[in-house]
Amino acid sequence: MAxxxxxxxVWRALIRRPALGISMSESFKNKADAVAWATKIEHEINVxxxxxxxxxxxxxxxxxxxxxxxxxxxANRWEAIRFAAFIRDFPDLAATKLTDIxxxxxxxxxxxxxxxxxxxGIKPVGSATVLRDINLFSHVFTTARDEWKWISxxxxxxxxxxxxPHPRVCRITDKEVESLLSALGxxxxxTPKTKSARIGAMxxxxxxxxxxxxxxxxxxxxxxxxxxxxxHLPRTKTDVxxxxxxxARALKILEQFEPLKKEFDGHVFGVSNSLRDALFRxxxxxxxxxxxxxxxxxxxxxxxxxxxxxxxxxxxISGHKDVRxxxxxxxxxxxxxxxxxxxxxxx
Length: 347
Hints:
mainly alpha
């Protein structure tokens, strides 16, 4: 039931349905108008026009997701950054009620991200970035719909997704690796005591093992079996633990780090992901290699390992569940590589 309060010459109608998360009020010059408004709104609630959580906004949904869902993921910090950026760059959209948000809203947001909004200092971004945001925000809305019952439909339903960009095929050459190692101050025969030098060792380790950056950061001494020459990874991007074989060069890196074994709380390299990213960016700028990414080392590693292992063995090492992704994104042999292999089989 609605309630009505008179203050001076103004009548205020209040409607509260705590179980539905609905709280609405409006002011009128006379009680008759207040009653008419309340009757209309209560009818709309009863027929389902005002859904659960109708007073909640898009920003509320993102905050709730960040509090309840993000902590269960490895990418929780990245998700918090994306939510904050959305609320900062699109404040009107963030303040829109969930019941009012529509596919048209999200379509305009997508276009603004791709084209940029110079007047508001928002730079354009690539389709890969927008696709990652769509995946995250879409899950926010589906969670609000399926678990929290805040909405009845996701506003991303029917929204066109940007075209998937072509996967990177860049391979990192030995010369480029040495330039980066020089910029990082890494020496192959010395214990890497500086943070930059340890990142250099991480780069070599990535090329030798095909491990992801986060997996290398998390690597601990107690998960390495030097006798059987493998490293155990209990936490991976796919949430499936795996064992990674270690090459002779990878074992040599471990020998370099032996004097530091009691440092870094049991971690091998003692560098955080954020620091690795910052110092690697600085190094590639110093080496005049702006187009190189740390992740390119994983592609290079898998392309090299493909000369030794078949695709199923390669997937076991890399942790890929879908070998099509392994083939299209990470396996990048050159025409010369394939020609050499053809020549070897014909002689």
